[in-house]
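Anyone else keep sequences and structure tokens together like this?

Example one:
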Amino acid sequence: MNIQRRTLLNFAAASLGAPLLARAKTAPGAPIPLAMIEGLSGPFANAGEAVYRNLLWAVERVNAQGGVKIAGARRPLALKRYDSAGQNEQALSALRAAIDDGARFVLQGNSSAVALALVDAIERNNERAPNQRVLFLNYAAVDPALTNEKCSFWHFRFDADANMRMAALMQVIREDRLLSRVYLIGQDYSFGQAVLREARRQLGVQRPDVAIVGDELHPLGRVKDFVPYCTKIKASGAQAVITGNWGNDLTLLVKAAREVGFDGRFYTFYGNSLGAPAAIGDAGVGRVVAVAEWMPNEPGTAAEAFYRAFQKRFPKPADQYVQLRMQSMMQALAQAIERAGTLEAVAVANRLEQARVTVARQTGTMRATDHQFQQPLVVGLMERRGAPGVRFDEEGSGYGFRVIRHLSAAEAEQPTNCSMVRPG
């Protein structure tokens, strides 16, 4: 079977039904294959499936507008899934399969360790096989190294990095004058280590009066019972926890904290998602803080319309975790391809460096220096649905996040030490 025919079949399989296929009729050219390499099995499969729903919707939205116009022909985007199980070796095998299948745009995010491995492999591939060059669009791997010492011309990050997210949380921590003791806990890999390192640094600058009474890393995705960890947290006298944990490592952590009776605050990167609000329950009201590029309770009719459209596409409440940055990423890619007039990687990358897109009245731009997307950030505080400022809950949990801080893109921006090597 030739690549074009196989890609067409992949596009049909990825469409999940007639609506996308019907829309694709407005884009009759050969589909543009996109390869999502993500953990769709294993301990973080729920996070992988949440990513897929967001990316699928982003693809559908582009295709509903007629797809991408290249050389006078409109072509639909075609999303195909590749399961990495969250492991480096499987991700690298998936990358090779995706390239063999004709994909020239790779999408990944859940795991900075996997992202770093993909960057190295893509660098080698693009040097050795210039006719099969690929671009890497990163929507969630936020280790700062990816746009600093490990920055790559072929890599573009659309999520705020860990330093940006921590700086947003610090705006709230800085004003919590009753806080005097914090506990740091995270996943023992590149991202988790970077979060705790930056927490220590920023606390030293913003709140030198706050004592760090615990600083602990745990195995990634392998802890089934966090009660021993939370017992130590409670015994330390900590009034708050700072963590970058995500997926089940966050859900199980907050469940255990509730079991042992810890009643302090959680300052989180992902406390608003993937089962965490339901796991925390009433104990999190007024106590759990999260940071994101956007939240459903962002004030304004544009935010409400955007979220209601996602709810309509995925009516099951447990599936209603939407990430605006993935919509921005797909819009930016479509824009770059159209402006390049080709799928050739260098030409598209040169245009992607100049991307400027607006989704739900939120505008973001790509910083060419390091390929870090610059966008507003918000910090939210967990409340019951129906409380002032909380129209929507998270994933049908009954709990939502009231936006308590809004950072402009300029306020969220952080410096970079990237020294990018450009082709040619």
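And example two:
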Amino acid sequence: MANKVEVNADIRYLNPVTVEVKKKKYCRFKKAGIKYVDYKDAEFLKRFLNEQGKILPRRLTGTSLKFQKKVAQAVKRARHLALLPYVTDLLK
């Protein structure tokens, strides 16, 4: 029994344990210098929707508050004009 405890205490890893380094989130609109979010560009707006068609939150996309509001308004307008679906099973 004592041998098993010593074996577990002597476990060594060949590679150091990796620590995940989170990438810094950035607002793609500020970085690209975009001032207007076009509601007619459905393919661009799909990047901000999940598979069910819900708008992704800022904490996932990294979008600033100012542009998150503009994206939300553009998605709602695109839905109203039937460019984007309100709900779906598999959007992407």
